[in-house]
Sequence to fold (359 residues):
Amino acid sequence: MQKEKIVVGLSGGVDSSVAAYLLKQQGYEVIGVTMVNFRGENPAENADGGDKIAGDAAKVAEYLGIEHHVVDFCTEFRENVIDYFIKEYLSGRTPNPCVVCNRYIKWKALMEQGEKLGAGLLATGHYARTELLPNGRYALKCSVTAAKDQTYALYGLSQEQLARTRMPLGEYTKEEIRAIAAEAGIPVAEKPDSMEICFIPDKDYAGFIEAHTDAVIPKGNYVNASGEILGRHEGIIHYTIGQRKGLNLAMGHPVFVTEIRPETNEVVIGENEDIHIPVLRAKCLNAMSVPEFTSGMEVIAKIRYNHKGAPAVLEKAGEDELLVRFREPQRAITPGQAVVFYQDGYVAGGGIIDGPVKD
Fold:
């Protein structure tokens, strides 16, 4: 009997390596594909980035005895992720590039590569699970470990993508995955986790934007809600909603960024209560466990990756637009971030936050 072929996105880290190992144990013919998405102008930067990823992945593939391919997706990544990231920040928004990358680069590109190699299935090292529900919809189910659950960044996957996806790590804790890697002798068993945006390892988002765009990023005014000038800011790309540190404003008490106005180049400053909002508007929607979103749907809504989620009710506001009404006001609702809806441990879907709504 011929083994079923499956492509694994092999990043050179412990999670994707164990995913490949587990799938091989389950009887799949595993093909590792490593995506090189970003190369800087500095050779040293590449040694720590794309080249090191490919090198570590190759070692793992050789150790596991699986086929391995390295594919350059730098052009697609630049057009779909980096340009999007920069454009959003220049528009006064705070994007989540991983959400865009997962659907339009990682899954799309890996599936296309898999088809070339005769593989109809795709696997990744994400901590999540996939399931076919009684209603005929494919859905993401939360990982067994809330501490590592990664469903938030995957809400944008299509039904076709989900149907062909396997996520073997969703049944394990991180500690268990590390133990499996060590026991199996996988070369990267002790490799530290990557916690930052892959193309900005130093976390200097503003510096990256300034280095990769010709756009002029002018300084401007801090203002309060009444328009009174409070001081000067360094350029809107340096700020996000809810920010308190790094404002360099002597107000005598803690103050926060409550709004960013790119059209006037103003950063609005307010009090803590000003960043607690009960309603947000979401667009660019993707329904997952449900065929569509309906007014009155009760969900647990997460407004950022590390947000615990809060009870909310959905309200249709247009063909591709929802109002999300929380039972309790939520802190720092940030345009550009994803809002993801959960029901009974499954991802109902989500969208991109267009902005808070002040009733």
Notes: Residues 97-116 form the longest helix (20 residues). Confidence is low (pLDDT under 50) at residues 42-48. The CA atoms of residues 7 and 122 lie 5 Å apart.
